[in-house]
Amino acid sequence: MNSSILILPGSVRLGSYNRKLASEAMRLLAMTDAVISRVDLADYPLPIYDGDVETESGVPQNAQLLAQRIAAQDGLLIVSPEYNASVPPLLKNAIDWASRVRKVDERPVQPFKGLVVGLASASPGSFGGMRGLEAIRIVLRALGAEVMTQQCIVPRAADGFDENGRLTDDVARTSLESLCERLLDTARSLTRHG
């Protein structure tokens, strides 16, 4: 059975460097035998997480659907911008809500537990989103994910892509190729399904 990898950009902005980086990762992973899919957080609008809302109304359907998509994967690649050296609120809110899902189709589930996760970021700054990835890493490890040490950063991302969306920097390109390969290998060895 082929491993399944989900790519999750942490931005919905159309001109987002991270959406470009996610597309490049998808192109690379599509050349393998893995089943690759991509999720757009714009398709899963959610209210800001609030425990009172959860108590009164339960977990929103979009959070349940997102958690179901995540739980069905062997690996997850999060490609996220950095906001003030941390996790962007859209991504953090989606993770917070999805982590509250305890059942999918009446089966117990913890969407992130045991999930192999790779991290990547593109940023106009010189750190390439590295600090934001560290913040995401802390959150995901707390949820039981197997977050890979290896990551990909693209600093100075305004000049990081050509007109076709391909990475222009050899170091960044090699880093992304290596991350995708390692994510797939790790997901295969720690597969949660099949």
From TrEMBL:
Annotated InterPro entries: Flavoprotein-like_sf (IPR029039), FMN_Rdtase-like_dom (IPR005025), NAD(P)H-dep_reductase (IPR050712)
GO molecular function: FMN binding; oxidoreductase activity
Superkingdom assignment: Bacteria
GO CC annotation terms, alphabetical: cytosol
Pfam family, one: FMN_red
Domain NADPH-dependent FMN reductase-like: 5-157
Protein name as catalogued: NADPH-dependent FMN reductase
Source organism per UniProt: Jiella pacifica
